């Protein structure tokens, strides 16, 4: 009898557990539907354009246009030659880069080779032994002195991709910023032709800002972007749908108002070991989308470097996944050559001495924009960072003001698709507190025009 009662109690417990699971599933489904219906908005390819005056150019920054750059030092199919790369692609490139480990001498011979093809050097200077090896000592001072003798601007991409976990200088933003400022100070004093370029990988975004040394210590902001068919060498993490331009948005929107943006590495795979398939069309499409889109949608991108490497044959076993080479496949090369034929792509770098020159600039904002009830909404950061408006929140409304004028508008809190989480690649939605463009800006004297997916904002006459 006791045994029967125990069995009944166990059966009852399991029934309650089953009912609870069913209820949780129902609640989750209801929440998911409600979440998508009331909170999440569809992302579209909106671009906000505005022209502003009085922007001080950074070192070697062109007023308009994009420097063409490349990396050829791991491509035996063109004999690692910058000259051959230029010939194959049909355009002289303004800059080429080289990885230099911290502790290695300044690559003076290579710098002269770069200059011989009419380009300027870009050095990815990496403290692969960790941040503690970076000291104000004879080595770093001599490195700076040699760089100062180059006679041309030298882009110095110090300790890039620190926002991930794969570098020896990741994980400690405080120490990273301390060492960055140390290096910046030495180069500023001993090699004023150095253009300090702070660069991250496009993901993870969450850690990016914690490593930023500040506008006073950075000349250019860089971002590395890659178009791959799969993440993590896993067919479960398909990435073929990703728009390479979207991968720019976080860094671009955050930093382009005060700094020129450099795509310090870009590559699109045409072969991956993940599925062991060649797909030249994938690479051609991504390259065309990226290079054709930069001048119009991202005018603050002032340099872009193609990573012409077949990683499947490289020394680092962990990276033997994708073939990014652009010079080995006719279809891929044709796409690249066609895209860079636009006149906005530049073959020569400006002198470093242009720093501080005032110029008019076109600024754009991308990603955190959506349409609702016939109105276009943009994230608050557009109004504060790009236009310099002051926002004061009052419950569900916001007071937006500038130059003694103000307007009260109702804010819209939504969530918008923002890619995938870096670790598990589940969909990621970013919370947005957005304001209606016309309702906010027109009472302040701005003119707002909408053409298809482009929004043009003209500031009030001064």
Automatic annotation (TrEMBL):
Active site: 161, 265
InterPro entries cross-referenced by the UniProt entry: GH, GH26_dom, Glyco_hydro_26
Protein name in the entry: GH26 domain-containing protein
Gene Ontology molecular function: any one: mannan endo-1,4-beta-mannosidase activity
Pfam family, one: Glyco_hydro_26
Superkingdom assignment: Bacteria
Spans traversing the lipid bilayer: 12-35
Domain GH26: 8-336
Keywords: Glycosidase, Hydrolase, Membrane, Transmembrane, Transmembrane helix
Similarity comment text for this entry: Belongs to the glycosyl hydrolase 26 family.
Record GO biological process: substituted mannan metabolic process
